Amino acid sequence: MIKEIIFATRNLHKIEEIKEILKDLNIKIAPMISFDKYPKTIEDGKTLEENAAKKAREAAEFFKQWTIADDSGLEVDYLNGAPGVYSARYAGEGCSYDDTNKKLLADLNGVAEEKRTAKFRTVIAISSPEGKIYFTEGKIFGTISLRVAGTSGFGYDPIFYVPEYGKTFSELGSEVKNSISHRAKALQKAKEVLKRL
Ligand code: ITT
Question: Ligand 1 pocket: which of 86, 95, 156 to mutate (most atoms <8 Å of CB)?
Fold first, then answer.
């Protein structure tokens, strides 16, 4: 099994989550410091798969190392799957998490609770140093809450409501989120791939 892997992300919350979820695997997640001189990947793919593969492959070829990347999105049924692959910049380039949450709540203003169904999807791409890609995927179904609730996590966590628990991801906290989330499911599958490499 490989001993070390670079996680090609600039999102510190994702680093925390992946370290927690992969902690029982004897594999070092390379520190973000190595990315200081590394140019940001342009996420211009039309799908989560395209963007995840691009992030992983560019870093793998640059560092000549095994690399893992995550591309995630929130797909809201009432909005025909938006924001999806555009989740990070839903309220415009450089927008904050607060901006995207406000925009989504405004777009769903007046929409009844039963029509606010949504899912989070994560695609993980693992790239060999030569650019061969292995994909895994994870999903979680929920609804968009009527207002923000809770403080933990990041992104859409304060408005993503998980019916089985009666709470948003932010209210659930990282331990529960990391046991049921889209990213957790994709990473559990990625773990099986990593064990075989
Ligand atoms: P990297 O590309 O550097 O990994 P990013 O934050 O840009 O980091 P994505 O391209 O996957 O990540 O963007 C997806 C956006 O979806 C992200 O900015 C958040 O707004 C949201 N998102 C992703 N995972 C999430 C999660 O677990 N909880 C809440 N929001 C999430």
Answer: 156
In this structure, are residues 194 and 1 in contact, taking their beta carbons and an 8 Å threshold? yes
With 0-12 / 13-18 / 19 or more C-beta atoms within 10 angstroms meaning exposed / middle / buried, residue 77 is: middle
Mean pLDDT, contiguous 10-residue spans, the chain (197 residues): 91 90 90 71 95 96 94 98 97 96 98 98 97 98 98 98 98 97 97 93
pLDDT for 137-152, tens place per residue?
Answer: 999 999 999 999 999 9
Ligand 1 mean position, distance from CA 155 (Å):
7
Catalytic center residues: 71
Pick the CATH number of 4-196 from 3.90.950.10, 3.40.630.30, 3.40.50.150, 3.40.720.10: 3.90.950.10
